[in-house]
């Protein structure tokens, strides 16, 4: 796990409490902070095999050497030069101009370190899987152009799933555990749906099942939990 900030730190805490995870190497450029993050699970009686390794992704050769030595089965990347919310603290007039530029102002902060990580992976010559949470919707297509895309990304889009399950559970009076949601979309869907209840015309796939029954209907999604007004019904 490389990058133990707000997101990476939480992921580490979850993995540290997952019995099936045999070994974790937690890595960050901030050694003091990183070591502290490796012992949180002890408070709840979990004693996973976690070690800390200082990694500076700006040092591509040094990172490659560590990866070559450890040969990780999976690398989880949650690094960034600047948290996404920092730009929002600029004066309103400046921030509004940046919003007009789309995701451009955010891209370099997430692309830079992920690019260097993938260079190190390539240089190490190891077989591994890279899961990246650093704005993958934009970063991965860019890196794909130079054949350096991580294996898969994760992002905010999945935050919509609990809302959908909550709505269907209350409307149909069924346990949330019996609801399955199949949804494919983009980061923009999460932002627009949560803030405005629209998709902005961006295409997506959605299917909701209760058991094996398809219940994908727009009326279930028009609630305070999820103000989605543009549901595409899938019957496949």
Q: Unreliable stretches, pLDDT < 50, 5 or more residues?
A: 222-236
N-to-C SSE string, H for helix and E for strand: HEHEHEHHEHEHEHEE
The first-level CATH class of the largest domain is given as Alpha Beta
Q: What does the average pLDDT come to?
A: 87
Strand order of the largest sheet: 3-4-5
Note the gap between the termini: 37 Å
Total individual domains:
2
Backbone structural class: alpha/beta
Helix proportion:
25-40%
Walk me through what this model shows.
- The model is unreliable at 222-236 (pLDDT under 50).
- Helix 5 (107-124) packs across helix 6 (136-144).
- It contains 8 helices and 8 strands; from the N terminus they run αβαβαβααβαβαβαββ.
- The chain has helices at 6-16, 31-37, 60-70, 92-99, 107-124, 136-144, 160-172, 187-196, and strands at 24-28, 50-54, 74-77, 129-132, 152-153, 179-184, 205-210, 213-214.
- The longest helix has 18 residues, at 107-124.
- The chain folds into 2 domains: 6-154, 3-Layer(aba) Sandwich (Rossmann fold), CATH 3.40.50; 157-221, no CATH class.
- The protein is α/β, with parallel strands linked by helices and 236 residues long.
- The strands form 3 sheets. A 3-stranded parallel β-sheet has the order 3-4-5, covered by helices on one side. A 3-stranded antiparallel β-sheet has the order 6-7-8, with helices on one face.
């Amino acid at each position: 796990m490389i990058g133990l900030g707000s997101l990476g730190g939480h992921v580490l805490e979850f993995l540290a409490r997952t019995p099936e995870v045999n070994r974790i190497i937690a890595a960050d450029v901030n050694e003091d902070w990183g070591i502290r993050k490796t012992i949180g699970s002890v408070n709840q009686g979990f004693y996973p095999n976690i070690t800390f390794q200082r990694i500076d992704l700006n040092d591509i050769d040094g990172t490659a050497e560590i990866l070559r030595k450890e040969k990780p089965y999976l690398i989880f990347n949650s690094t960034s030069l600047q948290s996404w919310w920092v730009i929002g603290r600029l004066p309103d007039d400046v921030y509004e101009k940046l919003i007009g530029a789309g995701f451009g102002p955010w891209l370099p902060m997430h692309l830079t370190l992920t690019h260097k990580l993938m260079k190190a992976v390539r240089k190490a010559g190891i077989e591994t899987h890279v899961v990246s949470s650093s704005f993958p919707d934009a970063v991965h297509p860019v890196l794909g152009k130079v054949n350096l895309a991580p294996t898969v990304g994760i992002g905010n889009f999945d935050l919509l799933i609990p809302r959908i399950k909550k709505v269907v559970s209350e409307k149909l009076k069924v346990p949330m555990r019996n609801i399955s949601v199949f949804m494919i979309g983009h980061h923009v869907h999460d932002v627009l749906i949560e803030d405005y209840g629209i998709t902005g015309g961006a295409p997506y796939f959605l299917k909701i099942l209760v058991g094996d029954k398809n219940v994908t209907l727009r009326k279930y999604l028009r609630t305070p939990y999820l103000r989605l007004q543009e549901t595409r019904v899938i019957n496949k």
